[in-house]
């Protein structure tokens, strides 16, 4: 399965909030820098008149745009893996126990994805053992013959590994 995400924004609410906070912080820092340099008594001063104001405004707009885009990319490393985890967990809930969380090398949550994958591996093995016991019961002479006490004990042991209440 192709694991590459085609869009940068996969969780708009989270990513736009993240970008907005980053952009707002950068606006505050840039304007604080401008105010401090304008008000400080310095031999040259920080001139904000005419073309200087326009240049500062254009530079600030480009900086804010860069911070916005950069924060969307950075938040993609968080939102993207969460999107993949939810997608795979949904496929597991539909009965696909072969589903695994495969993240890109630089994505966040690598240890969590590995833990999910290990848990799914254990669960898949348990289910395979239960299927194997059922197959043994079905292969008894006469088709669906009653299970032997050994089969029932093994099934019970496998099923008791699942917490349901």
UniProtKB/TrEMBL annotation:
Q: List GO terms (cellular component aspect).
A: membrane
All copies of the HAMP domain together span: 76-128
Instruction: List membrane-spanning regions.
Output: 20-40, 46-69
- GO BP terms in the entry: signal transduction
Q: Which UniProt keywords apply?
A: Membrane, Transmembrane, Transmembrane helix
Which InterPro entries does its entry note? HAMP_dom
Q: Secretion signal: which residues?
A: none
Q: What is this protein called?
A: Methyl-accepting chemotaxis protein
């Amino acid at each position: 399965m192709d694991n590459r995400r085609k869009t940068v924004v996969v969780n708009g609410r989270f990513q736009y909030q993240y970008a907005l906070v980053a952009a707002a912080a950068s606006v505050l820092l840039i304007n604080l820098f401008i105010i401090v340099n304008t008000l400080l008594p310095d031999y040259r001063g920080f001139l904000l008149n005419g073309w200087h104001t326009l240049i500062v405004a254009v530079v600030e707009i480009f900086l804010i745009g860069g911070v916005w885009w950069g924060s969307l990319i950075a938040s993609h490393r968080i939102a993207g893996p969460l999107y993949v985890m939810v997608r795979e967990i949904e496929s597991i809930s539909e009965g696909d126990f072969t589903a695994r969380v495969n993240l890109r090398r630089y994505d966040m949550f690598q240890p969590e994805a590995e833990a999910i994958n290990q848990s799914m591996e254990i669960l898949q093995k348990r289910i395979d053992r239960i299927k194997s016991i059922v197959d043994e019961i079905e292969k008894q002479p006469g088709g669906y013959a009653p299970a032997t006490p050994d089969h029932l004990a093994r099934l019970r042991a496998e099923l008791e590994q699942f917490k349901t209440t």
